[in-house]
Amino acid sequence: MEFDLKKLLRTNILNLVPYSSARDEYKGEASVFLDANENSYGSPLSRNYNRYPDPMQQAVKAKLSLIKGVPVPNIFLGNGSDEAIDILFRAFCRPGIDNVILLPPTYGMYEVSANINDVQTKKILLTPEYQIDMEGVAEAIDEHTKIIFVCSPNNPTANSINRSDIETLIANFSGLVVVDEAYINYSRQKTFIQELTEYGNLVVLQTLSKAWGLAGIRMGMAFASEEIIEVFNKVKPPYNINEASQQLALEALSNVDQVNDWIREIILQREQVISKLIELPFVLNIVPSDANFILVKMVDPLGVYKYLVDNGIITRDRSKVQLCEGCIRITIGTPEENVLLINTLRAYLKS
């Protein structure tokens, strides 16, 4: 199906003249900056942060480009993936008119952002196997459907969505298909960023919060066509990624080997935790995981959850989420944390 970005964009965004920051208005090198009303004396810190950061984060994007194999013009950096999600709603969805399709159970911020922007959500439940109900999605699409959100590996279920189903959506939908790959580093499936040149309506979200261990600096990534990334850059605040976060990201991105070691260890720990959990008689089922967490169905999920809290272990109660009834979501921790988890659950069994 033909994709036309101009028809998809809100008219006010199509005609938007973005804010031009002080750093956008000159080219080349400079040694004296008297343009942005900064404090030229420095900062009351060991490191100076008195200058505004690079509004386009070129150094960080250059490193990401080498790691991800994606050209810099196809990369957007946001204040967490949440900023990219919010921009998608603001740029493409007319409040009170347009709608998006969500596939629950899924990441909750899609719906929150839709509600903030007064955009209708059409919810098509995943199948009992946590895969896309393709017929349901096809029936839900109408002339005002702008975006389909697919989380894969999915949160909170931890499984990957069938790749062929996602490709079918992208190829047959005239709006945007957003594939959220926050947990892709732990998955056996390959990333969809390799498909960007093939699909003009594909947006892939990733993050530095999970495998890269940088949740505290809030940096999310969106990968898409150059024309879609240009839209993101028009809509975002001029300095959306602060200088401290950019510097820390640059430092972290130089340590790929460390991150890869952690990924291997977490996957190993995940399998060990699963093998211990299934020995417990109150554990009914564990969804096959492609993430750094597992969804565990239990006989008494609320009782288990409260017992863990009372013993200083915090998990996520998902037992009231449709299709996740009776389930707790458990992040894979360090070996020591995982042993403590299993021992505490064994103690619960005897309590």
Automatic annotation (TrEMBL):
Is the Lyase keyword given for this protein? no
| Domain of life the protein comes from | Bacteria
A Pfam family cross-referenced in the UniProt record is Aminotran_1_2
Which InterPro entries did the record assign? Aminotrans_II_pyridoxalP_BS (IPR001917), Aminotransferase_I/II_large (IPR004839), HisP_aminotrans (IPR005861), PyrdxlP-dep_Trfase (IPR015424), PyrdxlP-dep_Trfase_major (IPR015421), PyrdxlP-dep_Trfase_small (IPR015422)
Cited CDD domains? AAT_like (cd00609)
- List UniProt keywords, sorted A-Z: Amino-acid biosynthesis, Aminotransferase, Histidine biosynthesis, Pyridoxal phosphate, Transferase
Modification N6-(pyridoxal phosphate)lysine occurs at: 210
- One GO-annotated biological process of the protein: L-histidine biosynthetic process
Aminotransferase class I/classII large domain location = 46-339
Cofactor(s), names only, from the UniProt record: pyridoxal 5'-phosphate
Matching entries from SUPFAM superfamilies are given as: PLP-dependent transferases
Q: What are its E.C. numbers?
A: 2.6.1.9
**Catalytic activity annotated for this protein?**
L-histidinol phosphate + 2-oxoglutarate = 3-(imidazol-4-yl)-2-oxopropyl phosphate + L-glutamate
Molecular function (GO) terms for this protein are: histidinol-phosphate transaminase activity; pyridoxal phosphate binding
Pathway in which the depicted protein is active: Amino-acid biosynthesis; L-histidine biosynthesis; L-histidine from 5-phospho-alpha-D-ribose 1-diphosphate: step 7/9; Lipid metabolism
Protein family membership? Belongs to the class-II pyridoxal-phosphate-dependent aminotransferase family. Histidinol-phosphate aminotransferase subfamily.
Which proteins does it associate with, and in what oligomeric form?
A: Homodimer.
Name of the protein this chain belongs to: Histidinol-phosphate aminotransferase
The protein's organism comes out as Arcticibacter svalbardensis MN12-7
